[in-house]
């Protein structure tokens, strides 16, 4: 079995990457189709790492990105339980982080927010930083919901610093959005931070295809309550998707490679 050679089923692993690429491109229907395929193929799979990775990357993670909180919470608990029993620790920690973020998004209490921070710190002690910019952004958003603007701003700065160190830029547009929301909460709102689109480098792209998930309502709804006090904020500040223009080329290449790779490919041993 290929899983015993590589530690993970390489054929299924390609499908995991395809699903993640579709999720980052906002193609909800494609993600749902791939997730169902993974679920069916994992039913009788015996490799713990393959099963855990499939459940995280194609089920829990897309649910988390698309805000399907009910499903994400229950599937994250199942993932954490499975990984604990089968000792797949790195994916268990990711499941814990997703679950902590979902709980804090629903109830942004001090206790729930502290759980996100504890999970992040646990990952960092093991030098694990996968998707850290996403989780730090979630922390900042929960702090904003809790009314802790100072801590939210610190979290946003932490996210920017991580992006600068790591180069993990696919969530950078979301950090700029949160930075704008933090700026609106200040006694003297700084509109230069509210309008990242004034710089072509960070202008957010819109949905380019009919099947691409449209994020515009999400972003506009987050700032609509602030507009009456500030006057008209250009709609282009709150465009559809989460990715700056400079990321489109590399993300498109990554997605094309993942989607076009054969489902089952020949393996050469040497």
Quick description:
With 270 residues, this protein is an all-alpha fold. Helix content is 67%, strand content 0%. It has a single domain (2-260), classed as Tetratricopeptide repeat domain (Serine Threonine Protein Phosphatase 5, Tetratricopeptide repeat, Alpha Horseshoe), CATH 1.25.40.
Molecular structure report:
This protein is mainly α and 270 residues long. The protein has one domain (2-260): Alpha Horseshoe (Serine Threonine Protein Phosphatase 5, Tetratricopeptide repeat). It contains 14 helices and no strands. The protein is globular and about 60 Å long. The protein starts with a helix and ends in a 10-residue tail after the last helix.
Mind sketching the topology for me?
Layout: H1 2-6, H2 10-24, H3 28-42, H4 48-65, H5 69-86, H6 89-106, H7 110-125, H8 132-145, H9 149-166, H10 172-184, H11 191-194, H12 216-223, H13 227-230, H14 245-260
Helix pairs in contact: 2-3, 2-4, 2-14, 3-4, 4-5, 4-6, 5-6, 6-7, 6-8, 7-8, 8-9, 8-10, 9-10
Shape: globular
Q: What structural class do you assign from the helix and strand content?
A: mainly alpha
Corresponding CATH superfamily:
Tetratricopeptide repeat domain
The average pLDDT is 77
The secondary-structure element order is: HHHHHHHHHHHHHH
Unreliable stretches: 197-270
**Helical amount among residues, as a percent range?**
55-70%
Please count the beta strands (DSSP E, at least 2 residues each).
0
**Number of spatially distinct domains:** 1
Task: Tell me the fraction of residues in β-strands, as a range.
Answer: under 5%
CATH topology-level fold name: Serine Threonine Protein Phosphatase 5, Tetratricopeptide repeat
Distance between the termini: 17 Å
Using only C-alpha atoms, the radius of gyration works out to 19 Å
């Amino acid at each position: 079995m290929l899983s015993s050679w590589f530690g993970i089923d390489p054929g299924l692993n390609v499908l995991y990457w395809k699903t993640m690429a579709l999720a980052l491109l906002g193609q909800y229907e494609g993600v749902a189709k791939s997730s169902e395929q993974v679920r069916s193929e994992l039913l009788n799979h015996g490799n713990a790492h393959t099963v855990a990775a499939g459940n995280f990357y194609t089920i829990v993670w897309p649910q988390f990105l698309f805000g399907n909180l009910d499903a994400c919470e229950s599937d994250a608990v199942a993932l954490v339980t499975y990984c604990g029993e089968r000792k797949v620790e790195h994916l268990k920690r990711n499941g814990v982080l997703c679950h902590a973020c979902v709980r804090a998004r629903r109830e942004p209490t001090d206790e729930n927010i502290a759980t996100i921070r504890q999970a992040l710190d646990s990952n960092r002690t093991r030098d694990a930083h996968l998707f850290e910019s996403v989780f730090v952004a979630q922390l900042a958003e929960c702090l904003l919901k809790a009314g802790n603007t100072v801590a939210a701003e610190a979290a946003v700065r932490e996210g920017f610093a991580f992006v600068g160190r790591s180069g993990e830029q696919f969530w950078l547009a979301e950090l700029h959005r949160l930075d704008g929301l933090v700026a609106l909460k200040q006694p003297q709102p700084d509109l230069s931070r509210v309008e990242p689109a004034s710089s072509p480098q960070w202008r957010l792209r819109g949905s380019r295809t009919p099947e691409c998930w449209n994020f515009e309502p999400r972003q506009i709804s987050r700032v609509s309550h602030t507009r009456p006090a500030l006057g008209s904020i250009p709609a282009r500040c709150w465009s559809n998707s989460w990715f700056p223009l400079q990321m489109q080329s590399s993300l498109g290449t990554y997605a094309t490679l993942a989607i076009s790779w054969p489902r089952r490919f020949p393996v050469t041993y040497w």
